[in-house]
From TrEMBL:
PROSITE patterns: FBOX. Residues 27-63 form the F-box domain. It comes from the Eukaryota. Pfam families: F-box-like. InterPro entries: F-box-like_dom_sf, F-box_dom. Signal peptide: none annotated. SUPFAM superfamilies: F-box domain (SSF81383). This is F-box domain-containing protein.
Amino acid sequence: MTGAVCPTTVEITQRYGEAIDASLPPPGVLLTLPNEVLLHILGFLDVSDLLSTSRANHQLRELALTPILHANRLRHNRAILPPLLSSPSRPSRSDLIARSIVQSRTSVVSRRLNRKLISIRLSRRLAARPSPESLVQRCVLLANACRDFAPCT
């Protein structure tokens, strides 16, 4: 499989009929840079941008997947993360629990018990409701609406 050949400025101008600014570098100049320079440039991109870049070209894909690039990203994040975690504007664990962002074991058990009680209450109310036939007799339901539940006469 041969590599993709970048069209020249003349080919692009002929194909699209637009005048290309002479001050712009021709397409594909980025790929002529040394890999070390490209790796340095890729180091400034977010992960989502790296993903898009890796889909553009085989050479850029190999560079975007280079382990050293991701090791440098992790090293940089490890350096800047501790001050952010100890920031005074960061809420405490008790604040997060109060806002239900972080759940303690007690709150998880409490919610589970509450759901169980609601389920028991609902099943008792459903068992106590009148049958569809009695609702038809009291003219609450139409007779043809009762067909799906049970045979009504």
